[in-house]
Automatic annotation (TrEMBL):
Annotated ABC transporter domain residues: 4-233
GO molecular function: ATP binding; ATP hydrolysis activity; transmembrane transporter activity
Keyword Transport part of the UniProt annotation: yes
SUPFAM superfamilies: P-loop containing nucleoside triphosphate hydrolases
GO cellular component, one term: plasma membrane
Top-level taxon of origin: Bacteria
Keywords: ATP-binding, Nucleotide-binding, Transport
Keyword Ribonucleoprotein (UniProt): no
Pfam families (UniProt xref): ABC_tran
Lineage: Bacteria, Pseudomonadati, Bacteroidota, Cytophagia, Cytophagales
Similarity section: Belongs to the ABC transporter superfamily. Macrolide exporter (TC 3.A.1.122) family.
Transmembrane segments: none
Protein name: ABC transporter
Length: 233
C-alpha cells in the first residue's frame, strides 16, 4: 500500500490570458516510512508539487492518492479534514498565524482535532525545537529561523503520517539546521513518518532514500540513494 501516489500530475496556471504549465506529467509512489527529496532550480515547480501532494491545491490533470484516498474528487472541506488527519506541512514562508502566539500556533492542529492537553503538548514541542521560552511571542517578534522552528513544531503536533517540508533549513544557521534535520529524521524513525523534503541542500537530500530532480516542471532524474540515514547508523 502506498502512503502517497502521484499519477500523471500536471498543473497549468492561467494568468493574463496566458497558460503556464508548471508541472508536467509527474509520477511517483511512496510507502510508509520512506524518505524522499525533491530538488531542482528555483521556479521548477517544487512548492507547487508539494502543495498538490498535500491537498492544498488541485491539479489540472492527473491524480494524487494520499493513504489511497483520491484527493481530486474531494471538496475543499474534505481535503482539509484529510490534511488534519494525515499531513504535517512546513511552509517555505512559514505561514504562521500572525494574531496567535508561537504556542497558540502550535496548538492549532491539536485543537482542530479536539485533543486534550493541547497546551502541554505544544509546549513540549516548542522545547524540542529550542523555543521553550518563546511561546508567548508573536511571529513578528521572532526571527526567520525561529518562525521556521515554530512551523516545524506545528507540523509535528499531530504526529502526521506524512510530513512535507519545503526548504526546512532554508533560513537556519548550520547548528540549528542540524538540530532540525535530526528532528525530522528522528520522527521518521520513531513514528514511521514518511518525509517529503524540498531542498537546495544536496547533503540533506543525500540523507534520504530517494531523490527526484525536477526541471521546468518535469522529473529529469529519479535516484535511489544507497547511503541513506537509516543505513548509515
Ligand atoms: N498562482 C500562480 N499563478 C501563476 N504562476 C504561478 C503561480 N504559482 C506559482 N507559479 C509559477 O509556477 C512556477 C513554479 O513555482 P514554484 O513555487 O512551484 O517553484 P519552486 O521550484 O518551489 O521555486 P523556489 O525554489 O524558488 O521556491 C514558477 O514559475 C511560478 O512563477
Ligand atoms: Mg518553492
Amino acid at each position: 500500500m502506498s502512503i502517497l501516489r502521484v499519477e500523471n500530475l500536471t498543473k497549468t496556471y492561467t494568468s493574463g490570458g496566458r497558460e503556464l504549465t508548471v508541472l508536467h506529467d509527474v509520477n511517483f509512489s511512496l510507502e510508509p516510512g520512506d524518505t524522499f527529496a525533491i530538488v531542482g532550480p528555483s521556479g521548477s515547480g517544487k512548492t507547487t508539487l508539494l502543495g498538490l501532494c498535500a491537498g492544498l491545491d488541485r491539479a489540472s490533470s492527473g491524480s494524487v492518492f494520499l493513504n489511497e484516498i483520491r484527493l481530486d474528487t474531494l471538496s475543499e472541506d474534505q481535503r482539509a479534514a484529510i490534511r488534519n488527519q494525515y499531513v504535517g506541512f512546513i511552509f517555505q514562508n512559514f505561514q504562521l498565524l500572525p494574531t496567535l502566539t508561537a504556542l497558540e500556533n502550535v496548538m492549532v492542529p491539536l485543537e482542530l482535532r479536539g485533543e486534550r492537553g493541547a497546551q502541554k503538548t505544544a509546549q513540549a514541542l516548542l522545547e524540542r525545537v529550542g523555543l521553550g521560552q518563546r511561546g508567548h511571542h508573536y511571529p513578528t517578534q521572532l526571527s526567520g529561523g525561529e518562525q521556521q522552528r515554530v512551523s516545524l513544531a506545528r507540523a509535528f503536533a499531530n504526529r502526521p503520517k506524512l510530513l512535507f517540508a519545503d526548504e526546512p533549513t532554508g533560513n537556519l544557521d548550520t547548528d540549528t539546521s542540524a538540530t532540525v534535520v535530526d528532528l525530522l529524521f528522528e520522527l521518521n524513525r520513531e513514528a514511521g513518518t514518511t518525509l517529503v523534503l524540498v531542498t537546495h541542500d544536496l547533503e540533506l537530500a543525500a540523507r534520504t532514500q530517494r531523490m527526484i530532480r525536477i526541471r521546468g516542471g518535469a522529473v529529469v532524474e529519479d535516484t535511489q540513494l544507497i547511503l541513506n540515514d537509516r543505513m548509515t547508523e
